[in-house]
Amino acid sequence: MSKSTSVSTYKSDAPAVNPEVVEDVPDADVHVFRGHLCVTGSLGRPTPKGLSALDLRLHYSEGFVPLWVKNTILHYRFQPYTLRWFKDPDSAKADILKLLAEALDMWGDAAPVRFKEDADVWDFEIVVRNADECNSAGCVLASAFFPDEGRHELVIYPKMFKQTRTEQVETLIHELGHVFGLRHWFAHLTEKDWPTEVFGCQCEFSIMNYGEKSYLTPADKSDLALLYRKVWSGELEDIDGTRVKLFKSYSAH
Fold first, then answer.
1. Which of 118, 217, 236, 239 has its CA 20 to 30 A from that of 85?
2. Rounded CA separation 100/8 (Å)
3. pLDDT at 50
4. CA 116 to CA 182: how far, in whole Å?
């Protein structure tokens, strides 16, 4: 495996996306969360002090590592009425899709799935909350999901629209990493209830990290591409003794 720590930092000179909202909107449900920026699967926690960088990690539960079957297309739609908070819903939708397209483009050929909008048969909904989720540790920007056969949500919170465009796209790059099956790089230390397996280089920088070390690196992409290539070819059936389980999307059934 490559052990390069070089980073391919995403930079954008384009203006940040910040759709204008209407004044009178009802309160949204506030969910309990742990950590800052990302609570996908209730997994996000601050990086423990004094701990060294660790391997790129894979989510697993129930005794297997979940990944997508080859040629998976994830169908999405915007949750009905989720854009009603904005004065120009169509413009807000277009801006959000541009952010997602930029994030997906940064993963490039390493992305193991494709995406297609489909209002009728969908695998996940894009949901834009009208209220933030914050506590003393900080605020959530977005949350996503891991591979399986169910239906899910990709949630965006208002706080994300207050970030720079670069930070907005990097947040979505991180969340797409979860959709591909990746966990936070420190998950095995602080997220004992959701086990992980190790695959890939031991790199200090990773998009699945937080803070100043959260960058999409060549190693992130090469390891993800290698993982899926080995799994799809049948060369890799387990990781450190934990079997790999491939899932079809909900819409593929």
1. 118
2. 18
3. 28
4. 21
Q: Give residue for tokens 């997906």.
A: 104
Pairing outcome for strands 196-202 and 55-59: antiparallel
Token reading at 148? 């399986």
Would strands 238-239 and 242-247 be described as parallel, antiparallel, or unpaired?
Answer: antiparallel
Encoded tokens for 151: 């239906």
Q: CA angle, 203 as apex, 199 and 204 as ends, to 5°? A: 135
Q: Do the beta carbons of residue 37 and residue 44 sit within 8 Å?
A: yes
For 117, phi then psi, to 5°, come to -75, 135
Which two tokens mark 129?
């909350």
User: What pLDDT score does 2 carry?
Assistant: 39
Distance of CA 118 to the CA centre of its chain: 20
Which parts of the chain have pLDDT scores under 50? 1-7, 24-37, 41-56, 185-197
* Element housing 95 (H / E): helix 89-107
Q: Residue written as tokens 């959530």?
A: 140
d(CA 125, CA 153): 5
Angle between helices 218-233 and 165-180 (to 10 degrees): 20
Q: DSSP for 155-214?
A: EE-GGGGGS-HHHHHHHHHHHHHHHHTEE-TTHHHH-TTS-EEEEEEE-S--TTS-GGG-
pLDDT of residue 31: 28
Delineate the domains of the chain, giving CATH numbers in brackets. 37-41+53-252 (3.40.390.10)
Provide the 8-state DSSP code for 86: B
CA-CA distance, 201 to 3, in Å (whole number)?
A: 5
